[in-house]
Amino acid sequence: MLFFDMSVSINSSLNIKQILHILTADIAEAFGMKGTGIRLLNKATRALELAASYGLSEEFIASMPVFADNAMDEVLKGGVLIIEDAAGDRQIRNKDALKKEGIMSVLCVPIQSGREIIGAMRLYSSVKRKFPDEVVMSVRALANQGGIAIEKARLVKRMQMNTELFHDLAVSINSTLDIRKIMHIMSADIAETIGVKASSVRLLDENREKLELVASYGLSENYLSKGPISAEKGIPEALRNRSAVVRNVAADEGVQYRAEKKAEGIVSILSVPINARDEVIGVMRLYSDVPREFTDDDIMLATAMAHQGGLAIQNASLYLMLQEDKKNLEEDIWSHRSWF
Question: How far apart are the C-alpha atoms of 13 and 208, rounded to whole Å?
């Protein structure tokens, strides 16, 4: 009944803080533990970062990590770490911190969402104890329930944020006919929104043969002057109206100017087409300085904003053409003022 009630509580919430509270406070109390800690995996750095804790002092939390470097490897592969005697176990690095905190035994299980491990949950006991299989199985099941709930809550939050971000950027980009402002939004604002180091916008010339750089953000002049990029991986795909991701520029043989990218601090690249109605008119590229798994949400947002930018560029260009036609007409009429 306890497992059922906690599962219902975990899965009925879309609030990450509430889910983490259940996974820390409620589980600690239910299993008679001194404290608990939740660490979630940072997908960019692959580091476990503290997300929540219960029953642990600030001093103890600050003393982490308490385990040897390889102790968590098995957990991140889906295994379980059981330490019955923290004072004598070789896998404990910081025995003094555990002793001062009054911790005698530790159970650590992975937090999974489907097949993906997204973090780890640690249960700390103030008495020496063995963790029987039924306890381990129950804790693992609840951790997995929590993992699914966390990912679901993250997805909902990302959807809400992306909707708001898209709305704000779309309003900004469509409220101006100033090409320079449109380019700034497509480079600086989108890069900052998606959280990347840099960006560039290139448009096809009139003959649709060459990509001309029209805007950039976060890139040095040395890098921008490196040479033509039309054959570089990601560019042909984008010109065929498809997005393309290069996860590791240093290891991808299809990437040009790898030395220059390394010097610039570029690790991952997302390339998306810039469309104006049914025609590709250019390419927008986002550059990350850390290994980046661009999510479907990232790609969808970047693609949608590139499309909005393409329409805004076309509208601004038409406006400039009309202004030029108007000026020419006015000059032509003025040259025949003797008619009036």
Answer: 52
Write the CA distances from 302 to 53, 205, 226, 324, integer angstroms. 35, 22, 25, 32
Q: Identify which of 274, 165, 299 has the alpha carbon closest to the alpha carbon of residue 214.
A: 274
**CB of 56 closer than 8 Å to CB of 101:** yes
- Cα angle 213, 219, 221 (rounded to 5 degrees) comes to 75
CATH 3.40.50.2000 matches 2-155? no
Structure tokens at 136: 């381990």
Question: Is the domain covering 176-335 a CATH 3.30.450.40 domain?
Answer: yes
From the list 47, 44, 42, 31, the residue with the least C-alpha distance to 122 is 31
Q: Do 2-155 and 176-335 come out as alike in CATH topology?
A: yes
Higher-confidence residue of 153 and 39: namely 39
Structure tokens at 126: 């103030």
Whether 307 contacts 280, CB under 8 Å: no
CA–CA dist 27, 135 (Å, integer): 11
205-255: pLDDT as tens digits = 877 778 888 889 999 998 988 877 766 777 888 889 999 999 999 888 888
Question: How far is Cα 268 from Cα 248, in angstroms, rounded to an integer?
Answer: 5
Q: Determine the pLDDT at residue 73.
A: 83
Contact predicate 107/82, CB 8 Å: yes
Of 110, 135, 112, 101, whose CA–CA distance to 32 is shortest?
135
Give the pair of three-digit tokens for residue 148: 């699914």
Domain boundaries, the chain: 2-155, 176-335
Query: How far is the CA of 265 from the CAs of 199, 225, 261, in angstroms?
Result: 13, 16, 6
